[in-house]
Amino acid sequence: MSGFPIDKFNNLQTPFYYYDVDLLRATLRTVKECADAYDLHIHYAVKANANPRILAIVKEYGLGVDCVSGGEIKAAADVGFAGSDIMFAGVGKTDDEIRLALETGIRCFNVESLPELLNINEIAAQTNNMTHIAVRINPNIDAHTHQYITTGLNENKFGINLENLGEFVSTALSLPNIDLCGLHYHIGSQIRDLEPFEQLCDKVNDTLAYIESLGAQITIIDVGGGLGINYDDPDSEPIVDFKKYFEIFARNIKRRPDQQLHFEPGRSIVAQSGSLITRVLYVKEGTAKKFVIVDAGMTDLIRPALYQAHHKIENISSHSSVDDKYDVVGPICESSDCFGTDERLPLTGRGDFIALRSAGAYGEVMASQYNCRRLPGSILSTELL
Ligand SMILES: *Cc1c(COP(=O)(O)O)cnc(C)c1O
User: Which residues does ligand 1 sit against, CB inside 6 Å?
Assistant: First the structure.
């Protein structure tokens, strides 16, 4: 059983997200130290968790942010990130979002198509802005992850394919309000086997040489995020091996001293520090199964329903030494509203606290109000002392 302050949970309305601030800080310290050792620049991917209290902690460690919407740019600016610390990616930036980014003075747009490039140039011209852009490249690499979170294959909607890169670059170089200064990649998420990242390094080197041969001068090489975490056994690996991950790129990417190497980790920074805490409403004995019905559902944590993901399920209040097998399900009127089947748990009863572990990334931020439910609350460990 993990160190949850259960006695403090009794007064809180479930379900809620609980964030272990000590672990979050230890993770950020590790990231920062490893990055500094190799002279790397880290931009936290806000979409993993945009809770303002989490963002404020991330900021303390001197990281920048990677945003994928105007709302995220605002959320980052609200907690004090400077424009120069913000990168802006996404396949469908609206005119309003582009204007907001220009007003905020962001560091760089990651551009994903030719029409988007022309539009950014036009909007920048209206305000006489010179705009730094990085071209997002689709390197056609299979990240061996779930099909909904693989992004670097030719069939995905993201980035510019290599066949179209020459035209993109010559257009960018001809536009008066565009400074093409970066190469950007993001091949997918929850990548546990690091081999695709080695492939990515080779592609980066080739493309860098090609694009500079066309006359561009590249000072930002941004390799995105995607590093996966251990969902099966979070306590054995509370902080992933950032050193090994960064080393692959630091060793393999050929860069000059004037070229910065950027990363955009999201999940690997915040996932393990968060848990969704829920209470058991009923234990229902079916004919073939026993169901633990909890008060959290797919509206609070959608990853199991959306990506067939599994979060480790722990009964953190049962003291029983006997266990049993349960399906753990939520109250939403959808059969996909299921957190686990045939889960071994200590004897479980109404009122018990259940923790769904490793839920700090793509958890709270994806919550919805389907079924007219209230959004889950959130609490930091430091607020319970
Ligand atoms: C989602 C995303 C990230 C973060 O991915 P993680 O798997 O959470 O590390 C980084 N960059 C871009 C462009 C993204 O879309």
Answer: 45, 47-48, 66, 68, 89, 186, 189, 224-227, 264-268, 361
